[in-house]
Design goal:
By secondary structure, the chain is an alpha/beta fold. It is built from 5 helices and 7 strands; from the N terminus they run βαβαβαβββαβα. Strands 3-2-1-6-4-7-5 form a 7-stranded parallel sheet. α1 runs parallel beside α5.
């Protein structure tokens, strides 16, 4: 399973996503421009030594990334038409997340095959990006039973 971050702005969030991806066995696509310098110490601090255990691909822009998508593009967004809990994931899904401040533009939103939202209480706006990635990725992997090595159905 792939995690794609559209123009992420906060180095610490990207580091936390890299750590989550390393632990759960997902790859990460970073769609530039980034809101920070790639070698920012905050990325390394949040990712710790896990950064060596995750495949990271950087894409110059949306178009370069879109050319690599073979599976279904599942956008996690506060504007999602479907609750995460009602979503059925497939092994080849690419999980797309927008930037912390702006999400994704309408053209990217329209390109998604499915737009899902993590339900949150009405009086709050949204979850942190890295927390949202963890929740969506965990649910997708729970349903597809992969790719974390050693986890079998029923364990």
């Amino acid at each position: 399973m792939r995690i794609a971050l559209y123009q992420p702005e906060i180095a610490g969030n990207v580091g936390a996503v890299l750590r989550t991806a390393a632990c759960l066995g997902a790859s990460v696509d970073l769609i530039e421009p980034l809101g920070f310098v790639w070698d920012d110490k905050r990325v390394a601090r949040a990712a710790m030594d896990y950064i060596d255990h995750v495949a990271v691909a950087r894409h110059a822009d949306w178009e370069a990334f879109a050319r690599t998508v073979r599976g279904r593009l599942v956008l996690a967004t506060t504007r999602g038409a479907r609750d995460l809990w009602d979503t059925r994931f497939a092994t080849g899904d690419v999980l797309l997340f927008g930037s912390e401040g702006a999400g994704v533009p309408d053209a990217v939103h329209a390109r998604a095959d499915l737009a899902v939202r993590v339900p949150v209480r009405a009086e709050v706006r949204s979850l942190n990006l890295s927390v949202t990635v963890g929740i969506v990725l965990a649910e997708a992997l729970r349903q597809t039973r992969g790719p974390v090595p050693g986890i079998e159905a029923g364990e």
